[in-house]
Structure prediction request, 225 residues.
Amino acid sequence: MRMRRMKNLDSRMAATAAYRIEDPADHKGIWRELKKDCTALWVEVGCGKGKFTAETAEANPDVLLIAVERCREAMVVAMEKAQNMGLKNVFFIDMDVANIEEIFAPGEMDRLFINFPDPWPRKKNGKRRLTHRGFLDKYCRTVKEGGEIHFKTDNAPLFEFSVEEFAACGLEVKNLTRNLHENGIVGIMTGYEEKFHALGTPINRCEVVCKPFVMPKEEKKTDEE
Prediction:
């Protein structure tokens, strides 16, 4: 997420420091110690300004939610939301999701949320898409077998690419829809999602069941865009 640099970023980060995990690798395998009575560990990739994050944590007080966001300007807004709501079951880390196996132990997560990631539309950047099989392999190592990835996007080409990747990896897909809110609002929306739904943009969503898989071979690409 791109945002203007905040002049008071450091002071705002300091004021919300209780919600930020500075050394996430130190928690690998023991994340649940942050909330010893939690019934599940959920992780959100790219939480942005945290509307979905905070509302999900509030609606599921028995769950420990770890939100990942690389943009500190966005993350501090999300942490302020959590702080203002008095939430005790959500924490934030800034990291590259490519390093997820350095932060979470095998099978440690119960659920992973991927909401509205960068579509990386050019074919040559396909491996950067967060639903590419290279990332799916990492997710299926850190999410327990039978755990789920919940994926949402407004980008139809990205969604079709993702569905093809899930199938290529032999992963079960459930509750697939290409127009989530067609008959009324379903579930908790992100701030981004609210804006595009108001414009009439269909929201694509599905749930993917994680399991170990053999990485399929990459097809050679030609005529890169």
The chain has one domain: 24-209.
